[in-house]
Amino acid sequence: MANKKIAGVVVLYNPQPEVYEHIKSYINEVDRLFVIDNSEVVNEGVIFRIKTFSNIIYLPQNENTGIAYALNLATRLAIEEGYEYILTMDQDSETPPFMVSNLLECFSRDPAIAIVTPFHHIPYGKESNNYDGKCHRILTTMTSGNLVKLEILKEVGWFDEKLFIDYVDHEFCLRLNKAGYKVYICSKAILKHNLGNINENPFFYKKVFPTNYDSLRHYYQTRNRFIVYKRFKHLYPDFEKMDKKNFRRGLLKVILYERKKIEKLRFAILGYIHFKKNIYGKYKIND
To answer: Which residues, including other chains, have CB under 8 Å from residue 42's CB and lie 6 or more apart?
Structure first.
C-alpha cells in the first residue's frame, strides 16, 4: 500500500473495551486512523489501549457532535494530508484480513465508482446478498466499512451535518448517484457488524429481530428518512418504497416486542413533526 494513500476514521460514542479488538482488525490496512470520540465522558481505560496503536490521531470532542460532523472532520484532515481514500468505520464493526485491499480492487472496474462497501454480515436476520466474491453495483449502503474516493467526495460535497445521525449514509449515496457516480459492494469482503441491541423473537412460524434502539434514535430515523424521501423521491422512488416498508416493519416490532414502546412511538411522531417544521440538527429538548 502506497504511503499516504488510505486514511481511516472510526467514530466513538461511549465505547466498550472490545472496540480495541475491532480497531486492531483493520489498523494495519490504513496509513492513518482518525479516532473521533463523541463521548461526553471519555473512557480513559479504553482510550489508553487505543493510543498504543502508532498510526492513530485521537480527537476527543467532549460532546456528541453527530456522525456527519465527525466524518467531515476526519475527511477534511485526510484531504489536507494528501490521502486518496478514507475508510469509514463504526466502533462495533470488525473486518476480516485484507478487507481494504479487496475493496480497492473493485475501484478498478469503473472510474465513476465513489464508494466500495463490504458485505455486511449482521448476526441476526436474513442475509440479502450472496458471497460470490464479485463486485456489484448497489444504490445505497451503511457507513461502516466503506472505502470512499476523496476526490469524488470533494466534488459532490460533505456529509450532511443537518441530519446529525441516521440516514447520513443513505443521503450521501443518493447524492453520489444523482451526480453520476456509483456505489459498489464487494462481496469478497465480509464485515462483521452489529445493529442496535438485536434479539430474537418468535412471530408465528417465523423469527423476527427487533433492534431495540433507544427512543432518540427513533426520532432521528423518522425525521431523517422523510427528509431523504423529500429530496430524492422523484429520482429514486423504489428506495422510498422499500424504506417505508422497513419503517412499518420496524414500528411493528417496537409495538410487539420492545420496551418503552409508547415513548419510542412518541419520539418517532416527534421526528415526523420536526421534519414538517424543517427542524434539523441535534435534537434539543425544548424544540
So the answer is: 60, 62
